[in-house]
From TrEMBL:
Gene3D superfamilies xrefs: HAD superfamily/HAD-like
Keyword Hydrolase found: yes
Protein name (record): HAD family hydrolase
InterPro entries: HAD-like_sf, HAD-SF_hydro_IA, HAD_sf
Pfam families: Hydrolase
GO molecular function, one term: hydrolase activity
CDD domains referenced in this protein's UniProt entry, alphabetically: HAD_sEH-N_like
Annotated keywords: Hydrolase
The keyword Membrane appears for this protein: no
């Protein structure tokens, strides 16, 4: 660890910045397509070749889903109906919150700790999703990659977030389920935590004296 990162790691943050998918809410295209494809082998083939994570992540970068869907249908015309289901039924890719996390966010908010988020998320899907998730009423500001056309772990999105949140080096704890995103956040001046469940996060918050 560099001297700069050691300073950030030793800092006592006063605000918390969450990732969304994989930290606050579960997400995977499988949750939708297992309803539409009965055969397990066909389902695995479809998710590995057609509606892949790589295809979806274009939306996080700001590409319109109508455009990416048309391209995918051109490549896989035999799957037109399944591909066309993705946009209107996208909310079915999110089955619900990660266990224990909504209660933990409510507790953090009740303690008066400022809450923010940086999420890789489509600018088209985000408004639909946030309308179903009242927990985000606790958040003062949320940086959405699809709006900004930059995605984690790009250093620019962390610099933008720091400026928008009004936090300096060491003042904010960033929580993400991906180690590369956490490493990038630490390089940008956040204190990082790789998420591996609500109980371990709660322990980290106590260690940092963010919760009693």
């Amino acid at each position: 660890m560099s001297d700069a990162l050691a300073v950030h790691a030793a800092a006592a943050p006063t605000s918390i910045v969450f990732d969304v998918g994989g930290v606050l809410y579960d997400w995977h295209p499988r949750y939708l397509y297992e309803k539409l494809i009965d055969d397990p082998a066909r389902l695995e083939d479809f998710l590995s070749r057609v509606v892949t994570h790589e295809w979806h992540f274009q939306h996080d970068e700001g590409r319109p889903v109508a455009e990416t869907s048309a391209e995918l249908i051109a490549r896989f015309p035999e799957h037109r109906e399944l591909i066309e289901a993705y946009n209107p039924r996208w909310l079915e890719t999110i089955p619900g919150p990660i266990p224990g996390m909504i209660d933990l966010v409510d507790e953090i908010a009740a303690a008066g700790i400022p809450l923010y988020a940086i999420t890789n998320f489509s600018h088209e899907f985000w408004p639909r999703f946030i309308a179903t998730a009242p927990v985000f009423r606790h958040f003062r500001e949320i940086v959405v990659s699809g709006d900004e056309r930059m995605v984690k772990p790009d250093p620019r999105i962390f610099a933008l977030a720091k400026a928008r949140f009004g936090v300096s080096d060491g003042e904010a704890l960033f929580i993400d389920d991906r180690a590369d995103n956490v490493a990038a956040s630490e390089a940008a001046g956040f204190v990082g935590h790789v998420f591996d469940g609500a109980s371990n996060l709660r322990a980290r918050l106590r260690e940092l004296r963010l919760l009693g």
